[in-house]
Write a structure and sequence with these properties.
It is built from 7 helices and 4 strands. The chain is α+β, with helices and mostly antiparallel strands and 195 residues long. Strands 2-1-3-4 form a 4-stranded mixed β-sheet, covered by helices on one side. Helix 5 packs across helix 6.
Length: 195
């Protein structure tokens, strides 16, 4: 025994109401952050008390996940995707140009940083701006979005792609899905036998 305490040792209050054994610390922290904009140190005591777990467990979860804030957020928080799909069409140059724009415009309280994948690979380069996900950006369009956010304006919602017919391999497509999985598995086995 290592002395580490898992969900089974945290007590019944740390389990979700469905009694499936999943701790709800993250849900509690999300609620606090949604209400206050970040997780102040004194606000971490509320979930610890409510779930009857040590404060250091709550602090550990809050400091581990990057989407939790332990300090007040900036007025405008921008993250330009730095992963490969956005990097190749110029995300680094986009970020640099936008940082130059923010400094030249004298925008106080604006942070532009690198971000991990935002799930917009088909719309690269992409950025997140105050929780809005933006794609197909140029330095001019992202600078305009920053200006809108600084002025308190509304940023556009996510762009949705229309579905273009069935997926090539859809595991939920009845007999067709089963036959595709069988062909894929057989092709994989044949490739292994050849090597």
């Amino acid at each position: 025994m290592t002395g580490l305490r898992g969900p089974a040792q945290l007590g019944s209050a740390a389990r979700s109401p469905g009694a499936d054994g999943v701790p709800i610390i993250i849900d509690e922290l999300r609620a606090v952050q949604s209400e206050q904009g970040y997780l102040p140190a004194d606000a971490l005591r509320m979930p610890a008390d409510r779930l009857q777990i040590p404060l250091y467990h709550v602090q550990g979860v809050a400091s581990f996940f990057p989407h939790f804030r332990l300090a007040p957020p900036p007025a405008v928080d921008g993250g330009v995707c730095a992963d490969m799909t956005c990097h190749l069409p110029g995300a680094a140059a986009l970020r640099s140009a936008v940082e130059t724009h923010v400094n030249a415009a004298g925008h106080a309280g604006v942070v532009v940083r690198a971000a991990s994948c935002l799930g917009q690979c088909d719309r690269a380069p992409a950025a997140a701006m105050n929780e809005a996900i933006l794609g197909r950006l140029t330095s001019q369009s992202l600078a305009a979005h920053i200006d809108t956010a600084v002025a308190g304006g509304r940023l556009p919602g996510p762009e949705l792609s229309p579905r273009r017919g069935p997926l090539l391999l859809d595991p939920y497509d009845g007999d067709r899905g089963r036959s595709q999985r069988r062909r894929t598995a057989t092709a994989g086995l044949a490739a292994l036998e050849l090597s």
